[in-house]
Amino acid sequence: MTTHLPSLLISIPDGVIDLGWGHPSPRLHPTDALAAAAQSVLGTQSAVPLQYGAVQGFGPLLESLAAWLSSQESYAGAVAPESLFLTAGASAAIDLATTLCSTAGDTVIVEEPTYYLIGQIFIDHGLNVVGVPTDADGLDTGALADLLESAESPRPKLLYTIPTYQNPNGSVLPLERRRHLVQLAQRHGFTIIADEVYQLLHYGTLPPPPMAMLDDSPDGCVVSLGSFSKILSPGLRLGWVHANPCIIRRFVDSGVAASGGGLSHFAATLAHAMLDSGSLQANVDTLRRVYGQRHDDVANLLRAELPDTVQFTPPGGGYFYWLAFRDGIDTDALLTAARESGVSYRPGTAFSASGGFTDALRISISLYETDELAEGIRRLATALRAHGTR
Ligand SMILES: Cc1ncc(COP(=O)(O)O)c(C=O)c1O
After folding, report:
1. What does 32-46 look like in DSSP terms, one character per residue?
2. Burial group, residue 356, by CB count within 10 angstroms (0-12, 13-18, 19+)
């Protein structure tokens, strides 16, 4: 039987290089290692991987993940198994954190710009979404402090931030701002959801440690999120919450875990086999090497192909380049010429709750190999010329 229903989230018209998608290259999926993991997991202990899992997540993965994260340079400290909870990826974790920490009508603060698919999760929960500005160093905690002190500002229950290799602008929140943010959460009584899915994808200088490492409040005020989507494969739908054990207990006690058991339990058994065999570390090493090279290639291509009026800062990790057009070009309007030239991207307005960033766009280095990225960037340059002569 043939079906016309799609298999994948991604959809790209024929002939178009869509630089907008932040999905991994299919050739970088560790297919053989995952097949070996599935073989070993199902061959030796099928009663475990195919049953309902423990509510906090598959215990052996919690233990080996804690040890592995503790050994990572970008974690800079020990992670205890008691401070982890396994999730069905960061998106599901944000949804569950929002369920546990807010009620409809509450306010959530987000960065301007922020990850363009996140707003809908907060809207699903009936939250009031308020933006705060960012600069080259990420969230402007001074502007946030002013907002929180102002009499008119609604008291937020949640703040959503992407502190490391921000999506879309690639910024990294410095240590001092991270500390300031934790102090503000403690003083004003809100929970920080720190979406740190790119924390382990660094290509040079290390980022500061995850926000949960800096949370010294007795009951915790930070929910740090990691994801196997960015270090293994997104189809596994597996990630983790890293937080004070008081916060972890709230996730463990959630209705969804009580009824369905640990989230993405089968995927967790595969990730455990990958971790214990060393395949996960080998995969992360490969991703850093391949994406790191692409990242340098893209910086050179952008410099060579685009006019000086297009400004960008090569990010130190993650997937995204944020291009700012200093000559007043509207990137929503440019999209028509871009598609005619066979290229696409995410316009800046997609990342703003208030319709800002009309002069910016995001491209990703993750999906295409360097030769296709080069062709896409050349097509973008052609589109710019065509747009300019209209
Ligand atoms: C900042 C950010 N958060 C979350 C996600 C989705 O993560 P997951 O696949 O773990 O749900 C992405 C994917 O692009 C992302 O960029």
Report:
1. HHHHHHHHHHHHHHT
2. middle
Q: Is there an atom of ligand 1 within 6 Å of 165 CB? A: no
- DSSP assignment letter at 168: T
Question: Is this prediction's pTM over 0.90?
Answer: yes
Interval between CA 160 and ligand 1 midpoint (Å): 13
Spatial contact of 173 and 164, defined as CB atoms under 8 Å apart: yes
Hey, is 296 helix, strand or coil? helix
Looking up tokens 């896409």 gives 376
Q: How would you classify the pairing of strands 222-227 and 191-195?
A: parallel
List b or e across 172-193, with b for residues whose CB sees 16 or more CB atoms inside 10 angstroms.
Answer: bbeeebbebbbbbbeebebbbb
User: What pLDDT, in 10s, does the model give residues 74-110?
Assistant: 999 999 999 999 999 999 999 999 999 999 999 999 9
135 CA → ligand 1 middle, Å = 21
Q: At what angle do helices 59-71 and 265-277 cross, to 10 degrees?
A: 50
Q: What are 314's two structure tokens?
A: 């090569």
Q: How far does residue 249's CA lie from ligand 1's centre (Å)? A: 24
* Domains contained in the chain, CATH given: 17-30+281-388 (3.90.1150.10), 41-278 (3.40.640.10)
